């Protein structure tokens, strides 16, 4: 696993598909998840992320587990499969972005990236605020931090056209910083966010939402018209 950048104290070499089958068999079990995590084994911690119940996860547990992160796989897996489903995930993301630990800080930006994709109800204002944290951390030269910062920037910029424009402006500002990490983050993000593929998808999504909005308004008008009293 070292060739994939995964370094952990206890690794047994069990594949992810096998771990997912084990998790499905176990089902949701908060207590078992705590025991598996405490074992310190890489595969056990991945299963713990899959079987823990988000409704029972506390901010204290999130901080404790984040402090234990020692590789990107457990960090990202935990953010994707568990932490992003906790109601206060966004608050933890902001808090961790200011921490010095490499994988704790990565977790903050990984959470932002995951929420940008999966939290469909979140308001644009939340992500616009997060762009400031992204810029502040863009000069962090540590590999696993800069990749997460880039990930968060790109995912926010692919959420809709408004955020795409804001993310592009943020990337351009980052590009001006005197940092190799910042320049890489910016150039990589700009390449994707300004690409024809992303721009066409965002415009198509906007048109679809506009069409749905018109359909809902038309139906509402029709129903109101039908409810009006008839005069003979």
What's the quick description here?
With 232 residues, this protein is mainly α. It has twelve helices and no strands.
Could you describe the 3D structure shown?
The protein is mostly helical and 232 residues long. The protein has two domains: 1-56, no CATH class; 60-194, Serine Threonine Protein Phosphatase 5, Tetratricopeptide repeat. 72% of the residues lie in helices and 0% in strands. The protein contains twelve helices and no strands. It has helices at residues 16-26, 30-38, 42-51, 59-68, 72-81, 89-97, 102-118, 124-137, 143-157, 161-175, 180-193, 196-227. Helix 9 runs parallel beside helix 11 (180-193). The mean pLDDT is 91.
Query: What's the count of strands?
Result: 0
Q: How many structural domains are formed by the residues?
A: 2
N→C terminal distance: 81 Å
Q: Tell me the CATH topology of the largest domain.
A: Serine Threonine Protein Phosphatase 5, Tetratricopeptide repeat
Computed Rg: 21 Å
Tertiary shape: globular
Helix content: over 70%
| Contiguous uncertain segments of 5+ residues | none
Major sheet description:
none
Order of helices and strands: HHHHHHHHHHHH
Instruction: Specify the structural class.
Output: mainly alpha
Structure annotation, total helices: 12
Beta strand %: under 5%
CATH architecture of the largest domain: Alpha Horseshoe
Reading off the top of the CATH hierarchy, the class of the largest domain is best stated as: Mainly Alpha
Mean pLDDT: 91
Index terms:
Serine Threonine Protein Phosphatase 5, Tetratricopeptide repeat, 72% helix
């Amino acid at each position: 696993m070292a060739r994939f950048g995964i370094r952990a104290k206890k690794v047994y070499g069990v594949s992810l598909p096998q771990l997912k089958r084990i998790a499905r068999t176990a089902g949701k079990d908060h207590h078992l998840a705590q025991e598996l995590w405490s074992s310190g084994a890489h595969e056990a911690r991945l299963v713990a992320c899959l079987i823990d119940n988000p409704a029972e996860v506390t901010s204290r547990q999130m901080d404790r587990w984040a402090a234990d992160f020692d590789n990107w796989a457990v960090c990202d897996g935990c953010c994707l499969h568990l932490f992003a489903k906790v109601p206060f995930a966004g608050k933890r993301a902001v808090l961790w972005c200011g921490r010095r630990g490499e994988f704790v800080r990565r977790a903050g930006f990984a959470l932002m990236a995951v929420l940008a994709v999966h939290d469909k109800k979140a308001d644009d204002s939340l992500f616009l605020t997060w762009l400031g944290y992204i810029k502040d951390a863009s000069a962090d030269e540590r590999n696993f931090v800069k990749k997460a910062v880039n990930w968060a920037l790109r995912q926010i910029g692919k959420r809709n056209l408004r955020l795409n424009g804001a993310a592009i402006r943020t990337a351009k500002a980052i590009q001006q910083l005197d940092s190799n990490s910042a320049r890489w983050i910016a150039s990589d993000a700009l390449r994707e966010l300004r690409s024809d593929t992303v721009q066409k998808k965002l415009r198509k999504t906007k048109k679809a939402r506009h069409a749905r909005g018109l359909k809902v308004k038309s139906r509402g008008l029709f129903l109101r018209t039908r409810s009006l009293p008839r005069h003979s």
